[in-house]
């Protein structure tokens, strides 16, 4: 009888844990999606401060491009504020989001950007982390599709 009671308690506890983890996962994915959309909307508005508000204000921020990997929010923010360059058009597809751990979500979305008559397409990637100030991009990268001919 004692084994049955213990088994029932363990099963109930495990079910509660799974339910709790799924609840955290769902909330995290929802929060990250809202942050993704806000980040893209700030680009559409050409709103430098709104755009920067979506990034982790930390020396640990990672910005990866085809030819460089940089770290740190301060230089990233200074460059964004100093530039008037914004895409003429940004078409961002729906992101694919992957929950990695509580408070950590990876996302990638297809994009096409047109700027000064030139266009590029590819994938934009983000790792978002949940902070006391909301969801922030901690890692960002852009992977342009090859223009091979």
Concise overview:
The chain is an alpha+beta fold. It is built from 3 helices and 7 strands, in the order ααββαβββββ. It has one domain: Nuclear Transport Factor 2, Chain: A.
Provide an overview of this structure.
With 149 residues, the protein is of the alpha+beta class. The protein has one domain: Nuclear Transport Factor 2, Chain: A, CATH 3.10.450. The chain contains three helices and seven strands, in the order ααββαβββββ. Strands 1, 2, 3, 4, 5, 6 and 7 form a seven-stranded mixed beta sheet that branches. It is globular, with a radius of gyration of 20 Å.
What topology emerges from the helices and strands here?
Layout: H1 2-45, H2 48-52, E1 62-64, E2 69-71, H3 73-82, E3 89-92, E4 96-101, E5 104-115, E6 118-131, E7 134-144
Parallel strand pairs: 1-7
Antiparallel strand pairs: 1-2, 3-5, 4-5, 5-6, 6-7
């Amino acid at each position: 009888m004692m084994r049955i009671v213990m088994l029932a308690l363990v099963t109930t506890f495990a079910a509660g844990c799974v339910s709790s983890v799924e609840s955290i996962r769902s909330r995290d994915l929802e929060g990250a999606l809202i942050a993704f959309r806000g980040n893209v909307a700030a680009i559409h508005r050409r709103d430098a401060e709104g755009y920067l508000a979506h990034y982790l204000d930390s020396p640990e921020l990672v910005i990866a491009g085809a030819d460089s990997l940089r770290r740190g929010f301060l230089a990233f923010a200074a460059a964004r504020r100093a530039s008037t360059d914004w895409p003429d058009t940004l078409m961002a597809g729906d992101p694919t989001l992957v929950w990695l751990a509580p408070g950590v979500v990876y996302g990638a979305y297809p994009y096409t950007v047109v700027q000064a008559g030139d266009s590029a397409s590819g994938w934009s990637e983000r790792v978002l982390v949940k902070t006391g100030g909301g969801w922030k991009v901690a890692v960002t990268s852009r992977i342009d599709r090859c223009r091979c001919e």
